[in-house]
TrEMBL record:
A Gene Ontology BP annotation from the UniProt entry: proteolysis
Membrane topology: Multi-pass membrane protein
SUPFAM superfamilies hit by this protein: Rhomboid-like
Record-stated family: Belongs to the peptidase S54 family.
Record's GO cellular component terms: membrane
Peptidase S54 rhomboid domain boundaries: 129-265
Location(s), subcellular: Membrane
Pfam family, one: Rhomboid
Protein name (Swiss-Prot/TrEMBL): Rhomboid family intramembrane serine protease
Amino acid sequence: MEPQSAVTTCYRHPKVESHVRCTRCERYICPDCMREAAVGHQCVECVKEGARSIRQARTAFGGRITTAPVLTYLLIGLNVLVYLGELVRPAIVDRFAMLGAGLRGPGGEHYLWEYPYPSVLHAEGVVGGEWERLLTGAFLHLPPTAGTFGILHIMMNMVSLWNIGRVVESQLGRVRYLALYLLSALGGSVLVLLIDPDAQTVGASGAIFGLGAAYYVMARRLGADMSAVNRFMAGLLLWLLISAGLTSWQGHLGGLLAGGLVTLAYAYVPRGPRRGLLHAAVCAGLLVLLVLLAVGKVTQLA
């Protein structure tokens, strides 16, 4: 009977001779599979298992700590990309702007909503089943020569998103930040639908007002110096009043209220293993409320 070979090999690379054991599982590992540890070396699998068991750092509001405001950059890029699309095909604005209720003629002409309406006309807007307008309008902006602001519309909104979004995203983490942004945009559109359904509106202002409300709530929760924050909010509210005669104040106010409500939940729900679940429940509850309000208004109009 031949004696058993005393040569030991790596458990991942059987053809590679090895004489070093992993300090956790004690399997033999070759130099390619060695990972530095506090004592000795560990294998690749033990390192991965140890990383999973380490509690991930979180922000004060429960979000994952991020090294760069990637979502803010993506949102700015998406808005700019859509704006370039508008310049190539202006009809995009007409089709996807926020519009609660309107009528379209056989030649493409637009009329104010009335019900019942002649058979030659067709309903358009949310009341016509175009529910996507509740969100798509928040990614559109005025054409360069249209309205009071023209190209300044998207420029001011993107500068505001750059300044506020980076701060809010770093505190909330990407998932909570995205939920806040979209719910603020939706809240602005729903308030437009409820108060002024005949108006066609575009712009990310509702979402940005929601971020402004989040910035204020977070600063209060963190005990920051409120002098600069209060000046910021005073300017935001002043713009809300001024915009009443120039833009859709309903969209601004709706975004402000929705964003403030979501961030209050983020900030004041007690810490614990269920905090993330409670945050999700509040966001889902607000989403359901906004949808019910929209459905109720459409039912009333029709």
